[in-house]
Amino acid sequence: MKPANDIEQFFKKAVIDTDPGMDRTVLNVVLMAHDKTTDKSSAAAKPRIRRITMKSPITKAAAAAAIIALVVLGLFEFMGSSKSGVVWGEVAQKVQASSGLSLRIMETSSVSPDDSDYAIKYFCPTGSRSDAYKNGQITRSHCSNTETMTSTALFHSTKCYISRPCKKGSEGFLEQDENWTNPKYLVQQILAVEYKELGKKMVDGVLCEGLETSDPAVMGALVEMVDRLDVHMELWVDAQTQYPVRFEGKMAGEAEGQVMESECVIDQFQWDVELDPSLFELDIPPDYVSMRSM
Amino acid sequence: MIEDQLLIWKFKLGDRDALRRIYAKYKNDLLKLAVSLANDVNTAEDVVQDVFVSFAQTGSRIRPTGNLRKYLVTCTANRIRNRRRDRARHETSDIEKAAGTLCGRRGPEQWAILSEELALLSEAMARIPYEQREVVSLHMEGAMTFRAIAAIQNASINTVQGRYRYGTDKLRSLLNGELRHEAGE
C-alpha cells in the first residue's frame, strides 16, 4: 500500500458504513424522542408563557403583578416606580394593544448564525412578516398568516420558496419562531421577572427611560433546558409616548457541553401603524422554484 | 445548504420525514467524526445516537437558516469532550488506554462498520494529543474553519492552526509507519 503522505486523501478513503438493522433501531429511538416532545409541546402550547413563569416562586409573584397590570387599568399608577415618569404596566398594555407594528432587528448567534445584516419585521393581529437584508439586498422573506394558517418563505438569492399550511399543532411553532422578535412577548416576559430601572437617557434622539434585567427566568422555557444561562437585557421606552424605542439583549448559555451565545438589537419601532393586509400575503414570483420539488 | 434549510423548515413544522432524512444524511458523517475523535466504536455510536435524540427533542430551536451540519458536528464534538472529561474523573484509564482493541472490531449489535482505513486512522488518531485530534477531525471531517474550531476550543486561531500542523505531521508519520509495517517493510 502506498504510504499515506496525503492525510486529507487518507481521511477521504477512510469510510464508514452502518448496519441496516441497527440503523432502523436507532432511527426508531430518535423518532420516539421526537414524538414525545411534539406531544408535550402541542398539549401545552397555549398557556406557554404563564406555565413557564409560574414554576418559580419569585416569578410567580412577578407574573401575577404583570397580569394584574394588564387587566386592572386603574392600578397602572401604582405599578411604576415613584421616581419614574414611565408607568411600566402601561407600557405593557400599550404594546399589547398596538394593532400594527414594524421594527428592525439585528441578531447574531453562535449556534445558528444568520448571514443577514438585519431584518425588518411587521406584526398585525393576524400575522407577521420578516424581510432579511444583506448588503442592502433582500435575501429572504417569511410570512406567517394566522387567518389563512399558511407559512411561506421566499429565498430570493436562490429563487426558491416553500409554502405550506400550518396545522393545528404548529401554532406553537409560529409563536416560538416569533417570540424574541415579537415585542408583545418580549415586554411581557421582562416585566414578569426581576428588573431594575435605569433612569432617563437619550436613545436614538428620544428621551427614554430604561430598565434592565439579568434574571435568567426571562428566557422562559430555555432556562430549564440549559446547564448555565447568563442574560442581560435592556429595554428603553419613550418617556412621553411610553412605547419601546430600543431593545438590547445578550445571552450566553451552555447545554450539554455546547456553548451558545447570541446578541440582539431591536430598534426603528413604529407603533400602532396601519399596515396593508397584503403585506402578510407573500406573492410567489413565477420564476421561483418550490423547495419541495427539489 | 438549501436542502438543509428545507429539512430544518419541515422539521420545525413537525414533519417526521424531515427528521428521517436528516438522520440518513448525517449519520455516517457524524459516526466517522465520532470514531476518529473517541477512538472507540461503542462510545462513538452512543454519542451519535444521543446527538440525534437531543436534536429530535430540541432541534426545533435551530433557525431555518441555521447551519445544520455545523450544529450537529459541534454537538458531537462537545459530547465526546464531555465524556472524556467525565471518564477522566471517574476512571483510572482513559479512552485511549481502553481503545485500540475496540476500534474496527465489529460486535453482533454494532451499528458502525469501519473500513480498514478508518480503523487504521482511528488508531493513529488515538496516539496524538486530544486537542490536536479534535482540530484535525473537525477540520477534515467536520469541514469546519479554523476560526470556528478556535471558538469551540476557546483558543486563538494561531494555536488551532499550530495544533493542526503538529497533528497532521504526527498522523503522517504514524500512518506511514503503520502502513510500512503492514506491508512488511
Overall description:
The complex is a heterodimer of chains A (294) and B (185). Chain A is 30% helix and 35% strand. With 294 residues, chain A is α+β, with helices and mostly antiparallel strands. Chain A folds into 2 domains: 37 residues; 180 residues, outer membrane lipoprotein receptor (LolB), chain A (Clam), CATH 2.50.20. In chain A, strands 8-9-10-11-12-2-3-4-5-6-7-13 form a 12-stranded mixed β-sheet, with helices on one face. The relative contact order of chain A is 0.15. Chain B has one domain. With 185 residues, chain B is mainly alpha-helical. In chain B, helix 6 crosses helix 9.
Can you describe this structure in just a few lines?
The complex is a heterodimer of chains A (294) and B (185). Chain A is α+β, with helices and mostly antiparallel strands.
Question: What brief labels describe this structure?
Answer:
heterodimer, A: 294 residues, alpha+beta, outer membrane lipoprotein receptor (LolB), chain A, twelve-stranded mixed sheet, B: 185 residues, mainly alpha, 9 helices, 72% helix, globular
- What's the helix-strand series of chain A? HEHHHHHEEEEEEHHEEHEEEE
**Distance between the first and last residues' Cα of chain A:** 41 Å
> In DSSP terms, counting alpha (H) and pi (I) runs of 4 or more, how many helices of chain B?
9
Helix fraction of chain A by DSSP (H/I, runs of at least 4): 25-40%
Radius of gyration of chain A: 23 Å
Q: How many domains is the backbone of chain A divided into?
A: 2
Please tell me the CATH architecture of the largest domain in chain A by its name. Answer: Clam
The tally of structural domains of chain B comes to 1
Largest sheet of chain B: none
**Could you tell me the mean pLDDT of chain B?**
80
Instruction: Give the uncertain stretches of chain B in residue-range form.
Output: 92-106
Instruction: Specify the helix fraction band of chain B.
Output: over 70%
Q: Could you please say which CATH topology of the largest domain in chain A applies here?
A: outer membrane lipoprotein receptor (LolB), chain A
How many strands of chain B? 1
Percent of residues in β-strands of chain A: 35-45%
How would you sum up the global shape of chain B? globular
Taking the sheet with the most strands of chain A, its summary is: 12 strands, mixed
Question: Which structural class should the secondary elements of chain A be placed in?
Answer: alpha+beta
The CATH class of the largest domain in chain A, by name, is Mainly Beta
Trace the largest sheet of chain A across and list its strands: 8-9-10-11-12-2-3-4-5-6-7-13
What's the oligomerization state? heterodimer
